[in-house]
Amino acid sequence: MDKSRRYLSPEQKAAILREHLIDKVPVSDLCDKHGLQPTAFYHWQKEAFKNLPSLFERKGDAKVVSLRRENEWQASLLAALRVKLSHKDEVIAEIMEDLVAAKKTLGGPR
Q: Which of 5, 57, 80, 96 minimizes the number of CB atoms within 10 Å of its CB?
């Protein structure tokens, strides 16, 4: 039994979900009618409900969320760079101490 994989467009998936939610067609009947596995149907339904809040966001809200995420990313990057800079300063201080000690023991120029 060789079944090739079918790809349904987002519009087709929405229409199938609409049949269940609005027309109250049972999931088993929809799956038989469209040749679907119930798990696929329930996955689409879960994704639809998960993404539902984004339909009610204002366009400006999405921009604010995007800017907030970018600011958080930049803040974490800045914190990482500060840690690297302080580590670099510690390494330079250690090297300078070693250089001064080596000059003292070898009698280099003062």
A: 5
Q: How many CB atoms lie within 10 A of CB 27?
A: 15
Against a cut of 0.70, is the pTM above it?
Answer: no
Q: Which residue has the higher pLDDT, 1 or 23?
A: 23
Cα gap 26→49, rounded to integer Å: 18
Q: Where are the domains of the chain?
A: 10-83
CB 47 within 8 A of CB 75: no
Contact status, residue 30 vs residue 23, Cβ threshold 8 Å = no
E strand or H helix that includes residue 10: helix 10-21
